[in-house]
Amino acid sequence: MNTLCLAGGRVLRPDCTVAAADVVVDSDAGRVRAVGEGIAADYDADETLDAEGCLVTPGLVNAHTHAAMTLLRGYADDKPLDSWLREDIWPAEAALEPEDVRAGTELGILEMIRSGTTAFADMYFEVPEVVAAVERSGVRARLGHGVVTVAKDDEDAAADVEESLAVAREFDGAADDRVRTAFMPHSLTTVGEAFLREATAEAREDGIPLHFHANETTDEVDPIVEERDQRPLAYADELGMLTDEDFVAHGVHVTDDEIALLAERGTGVIHCPASNMKLASGIAPVQRMLDAGVTVGVGTDGAASNNDLDLFDELRDAAMLGKLGAEDAAAVPAEAAVTAATAGSADAVGLPGGRIEEGAAADFAVVDLDAPHLAPAHDEVSHLAYAVRGSDVRHTVCDGQVLMRDREVLTLDEERVVETARERAASLAERAE
Ligand SMILES: [Zn+2]
C-alpha cells in the first residue's frame, strides 16, 4: 500500500469545526485512512506534504461549468443571456474543433487545480476530448454533451440527443472511475418536449442521471408558464426529469412550490452567483432552498460569464449574494457557503468527496494561511468564505494523487497548456468571424 501523509496542518472536519490534525491517505485506494493529531509519525509514509501553517480542506467541487469556454474568456461581455448566447457565444461555438475543446478544457482544469478544485461537472461538446483532459490531469468529473434541438431539423436534433446518450453510456467509469456521466439537455426551452420525454425515459433505463439549466432567467421561465400554464420545474417533473440523481443549474427564479418539489425529489441545485450577477439573471433564493432541505452546490458556470473558475471567489459571492437576496446579513453564513462548495456540490452531482473523514475520498485543497490578507486567523471557516483566494492554495490532491505540490502542477505542462489555449483561442475567434 502506498501512503501519502498531509502533515502538521489544521483540518476542516465535516461538521465545519477545525482542529490540528495529520491526514493519512491510502493513495492506491484514493481513500483517507486516518485523521488525527500527531499520527503522521505512526505511519511510514511514502510521500509527505507539508501542511504546517495551512488549513487542509476537502477539494472544492465546481458543480456546473463549461470548462472549454475558457477559450471565450473576455470574448463577449456586458450583454443579457439571450443576445449574448445568440449573437456571440453560439456562433463561436459553431466554429469549435475538437482540438479547441481539448485545449480549453485543459486550461480550465489547470486553473481549477491551481485554485483547489478537484472535481467538476461539465456540460459541453466533443466529450471524448473532455474525458481525455480529465484522464491526463487527474481530477474527477461528471461529464456530458449539451443538447440543443431548437432551430434544428428533426434529423439533426435526434442526432444531437443520441450523441448525448451515447457519450453518457460510453464514458461512465472512464479514467479509473474518476469520470461519471449524465444526459445533458441544455434547458427546458432549448430542447423540444418530445425529445425530452423520450430521451429521459431512455436515460432512466440505463441509470444515467440528468443535468440541465433551469429557471435561470425570466426570459426562460415566462414562455413556459404562458404556453403550458405550468411552472418550469412542474413541467420537468412531469417529464420525469427530477430525481435524486439529477441536478439543475441556476434555480434563480423558483417559487416556493418549486423549491418544495426540488426538496421532495432530492434534485440538487447548482448556484452560480457570479454568472447570475454578470448576466443580470437575478438572485437565487439560496437560504430558502437550504431551509427547505434542497441540496445546494456551487458552480462557476463557463469562464465567458464569470470570468474565472476560482471556486473560492464563487463561494464568497454565494455568501454575499445570499444575504443581499434575503435582505438578511445572517443568510447563507460562512459554514453554509463552504459546505455548499464542498459536500453540497459533491452530493448534488453524485461524485465522491466533500468531506475529510476516515474512508472518504482523498481529495484535498491545502490552503496556506500565511498571507497578510489571512491574518489574524480568528476563524478559519470565515476565512474560507470571505478572505481566501484560489492562489492561496499550496497543494492539491485528488483520489490520493498529488496534482499540485508547492504551487507546481505535476500532471499538466502549465506553459504548454496556456500557450496552446492562446493559439486555439486566437484561431477560433478568427474562424467565428
Ligand atoms: Zn451553464
UniProtKB/TrEMBL annotation:
GO terms for molecular function: 5'-methylthioadenosine deaminase activity; metal ion binding; S-adenosylhomocysteine deaminase activity. InterPro entries: Amidohydro-rel, Deaminase_MtaD/DadD, Metal-dep_hydrolase_composite, Metal_Hydrolase, MTA/SAH_deaminase. It catalyses: S-adenosyl-L-homocysteine + H2O + H(+) = S-inosyl-L-homocysteine + NH4(+); S-methyl-5'-thioadenosine + H2O + H(+) = S-methyl-5'-thioinosine + NH4(+). Substrate binds at residues 93, 186, 216, 301. The keyword Protein biosynthesis does not apply. Transmembrane segments: none annotated. Pfam families: Amidohydro_1 (PF01979). Residues 55-402 form the Amidohydrolase-related domain. It comes from the Archaea. Its EC number is 3.5.4.28, 3.5.4.31. SUPFAM superfamilies: Composite domain of metallo-dependent hydrolases, Metallo-dependent hydrolases. It is an enzyme of class 3 (hydrolase). Zn(2+) binds at residues 64, 66, 213, 301. The keyword rRNA processing does not apply. Keywords: Hydrolase, Metal-binding, Zinc. Its cofactor is Zn(2+). Binds 1 zinc ion per subunit. Gene3D superfamilies: Metal-dependent hydrolases (3.20.20.140), Urease, subunit C, domain 1 (2.30.40.10). HAMAP family: MTA_SAH_deamin. Catalyzes the deamination of 5-methylthioadenosine and S-adenosyl-L-homocysteine into 5-methylthioinosine and S-inosyl-L-homocysteine, respectively. Is also able to deaminate adenosine. Belongs to the metallo-dependent hydrolases superfamily. MTA/SAH deaminase family. This is 5-methylthioadenosine/S-adenosylhomocysteine deaminase. It comes from Halogeometricum rufum. The lineage of its organism: Archaea, Methanobacteriati, Methanobacteriota, Stenosarchaea group, Halobacteria.
